[in-house]
Amino acid sequence: VQLVESGGGLVQPGGSLRLSCAASGFTFSTYYMSWHRQAPGKERELVALITHEGRIIKYMDSVKGRFSISRDKNTMYLQMNKLKPEDTAVYYCKALHGKFGDEYWGQGTQGTVPS
User: Fold this and answer.
1) pLDDT tens digit string along 61-92?
2) CA proximity to 40, closest of 86, 4, 106, 9
3) Residue 23: which of 83, 94, 84 has the closest Cα?
4) Which of 20, 48, 88, 100 has the fewest CB within 10 Å, making it most exposed?
């Protein structure tokens, strides 16, 4: 099983990043997928969640209207617009099987928005 994030980087405030999470080794179409982030000294938090069928369940309040989660055959995406310094974090993707509870995490990708 592999979840590989990419697309992180350094971007100025107001800019955009598009994160990708490439999945392999499991039946992607049966798993809920989510993005999480962890800023230095803070706990990991849920950013956005999408069902196995592509229905978006949740965005954290601070990213609503700026971030957009999506998925296709074997990849999940997070389009991040109007980025702010407080969006600086390591972004992780997670796969969760809604029925059996299996879960997998990616290694994370750093997104940095300088103040």
Assistant:
1) 999 999 999 999 999 999 999 999 999 999 99
2) 86
3) 94
4) 100
